[in-house]
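Duplicate of earlier report; OmpR/PhoB-type domain-containing protein input re-posted below.
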Amino acid sequence: MSEPDWSPLTGFRVAVTSARRADELSALLKRRGATVTSAAAIEMVPLPDDDELRQRTQALIDNPPDIVVATTGIGFRGWIAAADGWGLATELTAALAKARVVSRGPKATGALRAGGLPEEWSPESESSREVLHYLVEGGISGARIAVQLHGATADWDPFPEFLDELRSAGAEVVPIRVYRWHPVPRDGEFDQLVAGIAEDKFDAVSFTSAPAVAAMLLRATEMGLEAEVLSALRNNVHAMCVGPVTARPLVRLGVPTSAPERMRLGALARHITDELPLLQARTVRVAGHLLEIRGNCVLVDGEVKAMSPAAMATVRALSHHPGAVVSRTDLLRALPGSGTDTHAVETAVLRLRSALGDKRMVSTVVKRGYRLTIDEAHAS
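Output:
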């Protein structure tokens, strides 16, 4: 038997919002057949120019904390690297060595040990909730706690509940915001990506940081598209997040999200590969053929059939209720643009039949419209 001419993500359209490692994630998805649109949602404040981070670093050297919490490996390494650039790395490490050191997971643990700061404790789950429980159970009233954070913006902070609950338990919290971000400038590729989400031009959008989610929501509001973007994310555009912290801003808004078990880029690519076809593909038996409808193509008996936008919109509309008659008026409404001439429907159906390769797959119902010719055994 010959090898199929499609991959797991063939025909699916995925938006990538990452600022870091976007090329890597895009390559992983393209390798699996996806059509990828990439536009960073946020841009990083260069660490040597981060005056707030430098001031907080000097304050900790002058007044060492009682407890240090490292939340990410790259963030902690970046902090030490920035301190080294300011000539403060030795003094910072010495100040932190006087504290109890807690790590949120294995990557943060590795960064701590590389800096000569062995951890007192770290959860196996990489859960901030477990770190919070450990600290509160041990008693932190009156303690000064430095928490290394990763990915803050001017309008958003990661782990807000975590910091608030530490304060509620009586601790003085010193947030150390490493790799702060700003939304990207207006009227660029990211605005086009946000508009594409609002218009259901993607089957999934990936997020690798909560700041990217926050920036997307902020930009949608600025563009007057907040309602449309949220509607798309609650229905046809699936939000794929690298982990629960990234997903949290969407979950609060009632947007369904999914994430891999391990918070890694490769795991996210595999998760999208496994989950998106289950969430988005629609498969029916039509006129003796197996028809699988994807984002911008269909498979007929395992063979990829390229579709024009009008033909794709038509087959999607017909497949929402397989076998049911869809009127010309409803099909016209589903076509791209805002045309009023039902002859456009006839043209779209003609092209759809031609692309499918078997005209029997789409039946004409005189004076009523069109329907997919569902095989009797599969009719509802």
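Residues 47-179 form a domain with the Rossmann fold fold (CATH 3.40.50.10090).

Merging into the original ticket.
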